[in-house]
Fold this sequence. Notes:
This protein has 120 residues and is mainly beta. It has a single domain (8-116), classed as SH3 type barrels (Roll), CATH 2.30.30. 9% of the residues lie in helices and 42% in strands. The chain contains one helix and six strands; from the N terminus they run E-E-E-E-E-E-H. The protein has one helix spanning 101-111; strands spanning 8-15, 22-33, 36-43, 55-58, 74-85, 89-95. Strand 2 and strand 3 (36-43) form a beta hairpin.
Amino acid sequence: MISPQTPEIWLVRFPFSDLTSTKLRPAFILAAHREELIILGIFSKMPIGELRETWVVISDKHPNFSQTGLKKTSLIRTDKIATVNASVFQRQLGSLPSDILPLVQAALKICLNISYILLV
């Protein structure tokens, strides 16, 4: 049985936002809850110009880039979040370097407006 965990990077059938189809792409495992996993899409197409504050670059120049299993510099887009079943996972590519995880957490906090939510 496949059991992806944080901070792993897996190749998954990532759903389009309109849910009409999926595309095989890398994804970062944000959280695992039994057979359901919360993932963030990883994209290799780098935009021209300024990056959004909700995107985190994983540079191929990073000293631990090889542990990611990615082929080239990529973006973790915290605005591309999905909850999926373990059945969409193909294979593990690698894991996220530990110094990039806080950047992902900060970008996700901005994306979800968590700093504006008061927890009672």
